[in-house]
Amino acid sequence: MDSCVSERRLVAFTAALLCAGLLASGCGGNSEGYEGGTFSGTEPNEPPDEATVPEPDPEGERLAEVTAEFDRAGEAGGVLYEGSPVANGARAELVILSEENGGSYYAEVEGFPENRLLGARVHTGRCGTSAEDAGPPYRPGGESGQSGGEGGEEDTVFLQMDTDADGRAQAEVPVDRQPEPDAMGSLVFVTDPTDDDGGDPVACMDITSDG
User: Fold this and answer.
1) 69-87 as b/e, with b when 16 or more CB fall inside 10 Å?
2) What is d(CA 59, CA 41) in angstroms, rounded to the nearest whole number?
3) Which one of 77, 78, 91, 149 is least enclosed by Cβ atoms within 10 Å?
């Protein structure tokens, strides 16, 4: 009997010592280094954010906002040229803005060839079965507007972008002339544009001022 009482007292005494030790080491609710239910340095790893294409947040009046889905027949506003590496069902959006000192153009794509240099140039004609149907490039104000860097055509509206591993990309380019959507007909996409070569036309989307 006495031995059982002694054992129970020993267990209780040991538990009390352990509890006191834990409180002294900072395991209490208000201890330093303890936040949000975990101790500093033991927080679970946060999963990485998925790659997303940012939504445009432009300032100024929207003159046009056009979306298209690409297929061979061009039934959803977007045409794929013969031999195009762009997949059926790829999508694109174009936003044209009027601003105080000119305008800007924003484009984004998804479903295009991955990890590829891509260009998009505004043309005056509507899309057809070939890039020639889109007519000559649109030039803001009919004069010097914006070169767009690479692409082989000066004074045109040219957006250049690099697609990611999922075939998504976006680009925005300002111009010093007010955009004239009524004078625009289409946006022609090309792959691998350079200073000396406008690139290989792969797709086209019609531009309408009413979006």
Assistant:
1) bbbeebeebbbbbeebebe
2) 43
3) 149
Q: What per-residue confidence (pLDDT) applies to 85?
A: 93
Q: Does 95 map to a domain?
A: yes
In this prediction the pTM is: 0.67
pLDDT tens-place string over residues 60-90: 788 899 999 998 877 778 999 999 999 999 9
Please report, for the domain that includes residue 195, its CATH number.
Answer: 2.60.40.200
Q: Is residue 34 part of a domain?
A: no
Please tell me the total count of domains within the chain.
1
On whether residue 185 sits in a domain, the answer given is: yes
